[in-house]
């Protein structure tokens, strides 16, 4: 029997794991109790058709991850900030909330957050490169400078936020997520000891995807004009889906070829970035990740 393909993400004081059918989050409350949140992944026929089209399927996958992941982040943040004694029953909570409004607001917030972040990291480097357009006039030089600043902006942003206590713990849970998936894919029992022996880096990580958008963007932008400036702005915005789609395909390719010695190096840049986006988790964090993963497998 083939193992299911499992992905995941870190949330506040917990980990979310997902297959193509279901998502499960486990978090540790401030009273040391592990609490779960789970939901089925809607299987929309139109989305499934789009996922069969190269380049386009990457945009669908990223958009879905942003939307559904936001729901789990909301759950984790709400439970983290709420005193367990103030909890109401699940049934009362369901009756108190208009589910349609929750879904719509989650979708809107997820889409806007993704687009705003992507626009900022795409357009700010364009303006910086334009500042130096008098000194660096070649097409290659302008695209290289833009991509270099984008990379510096990305690494600097991750480094700065990783110094805050909450983000550091989030990155520890990110490491726990990877360790659990690596242990599972290695065929080892999910014990704390086994999980801690495995790497906190993983080829399919979204951190690698973010880095690939910088590298892929550099190649794609070499084939489009940078002058006049407004054309450069417009083509950068228009090419966002292309860069996302190609980066997604490249991420999938590096994962498939990771056991082929000749091509294994393709995933190394993404793995190196994960030294910033993951931290070594402690045993209690690994325990939460194991609980989340096991519950997913039982439900899926």
Describe the protein.
With 300 residues, this protein is α+β, with helices and mostly antiparallel strands. The protein has helices spanning 45-50, 56-81, 90-96, 99-131, 139-162, 165-185, 192-197, 206-221, 229-238, 240-256, 268-277, 283-299; strands spanning 7-11, 14-18, 22-28, 34-40. Strands 1-2-3-4 form a 4-stranded antiparallel beta sheet. Helix 4 crosses helix 5, helix 8 crosses helix 10 and helix 8 packs across helix 11 (268-277). The longest helix is centred in the middle third of the chain and has 33 residues, at 99-131. The radius of gyration is 20 Å and the shape is globular. The two termini are 14 Å apart.
Write the layout of secondary structure elements.
Elements: E1 7-11, E2 14-18, E3 22-28, E4 34-40, H1 45-50, H2 56-81, H3 90-96, H4 99-131, H5 139-162, H6 165-185, H7 192-197, H8 206-221, H9 229-238, H10 240-256, H11 268-277, H12 283-299
Antiparallel strand pairs: 1-2, 2-3, 3-4
Helix pairs in contact: 2-4, 2-10, 4-5, 4-9, 5-8, 6-12, 8-10, 8-11
Strand order, sheet with most strands? 1-2-3-4
Count of distinct strands: 4
Strand content: 5-15%
* End-to-end CA span: 14 Å
Output the number of helix runs.
12
Radius of gyration equals: 20 Å
């Amino acid at each position: 029997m083939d193992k299911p393909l499992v992905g995941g993400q870190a949330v506040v004081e917990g980990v979310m794991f997902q297959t193509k059918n279901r998502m499960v989050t486990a978090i540790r409350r401030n009273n040391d109790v592990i609490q779960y949140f789970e939901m089925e992944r809607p299987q929309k026929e139109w989305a499934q058709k789009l996922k069969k089209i190269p380049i386009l399927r990457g945009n669908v996958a990223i958009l879905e991850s942003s939307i559904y992941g936001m729901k789990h982040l909301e759950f984790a943040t709400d439970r983290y900030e709420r005193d367990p004694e103030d909890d109401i029953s699940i049934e009362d909570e369901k009756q108190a909330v208009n589910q349609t409004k929750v879904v719509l607001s989650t979708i809107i917030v997820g889409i806007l957050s993704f687009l705003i972040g992507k626009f900022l990291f795409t357009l700010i480097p364009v303006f910086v490169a334009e500042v130096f357009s008098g000194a660096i006039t070649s097409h290659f030089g302008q695209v290289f400078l833009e991509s270099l600043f984008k990379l510096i902006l990305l690494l600097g942003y991750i480094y700065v936020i990783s110094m805050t206590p909450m983000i550091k713990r989030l990155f520890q849970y990110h490491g726990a997520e990877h360790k659990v998936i690596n242990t599972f894919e290695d065929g080892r029992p999910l014990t704390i000891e086994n999980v801690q022996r495995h790497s906190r880096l993983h080829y399919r990580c979204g951190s690698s995807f973010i880095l690939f958008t910088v590298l892929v963007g550099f190649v794609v932008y070499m084939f489009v004009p940078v002058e006049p400036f407004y054309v450069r702005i417009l083509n950068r915005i228009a090419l966002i889906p292309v860069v996302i789609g190609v980066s997604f395909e490249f991420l999938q390719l590096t994962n498939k070829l990771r056991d082929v010695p000749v091509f294994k190096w393709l995933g190394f840049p993404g793995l190196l970035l994960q030294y910033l986006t993951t931290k070594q988790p402690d045993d209690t964090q690994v325990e939460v990740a194991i609980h989340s993963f096991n519950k997913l497998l039982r439900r899926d």
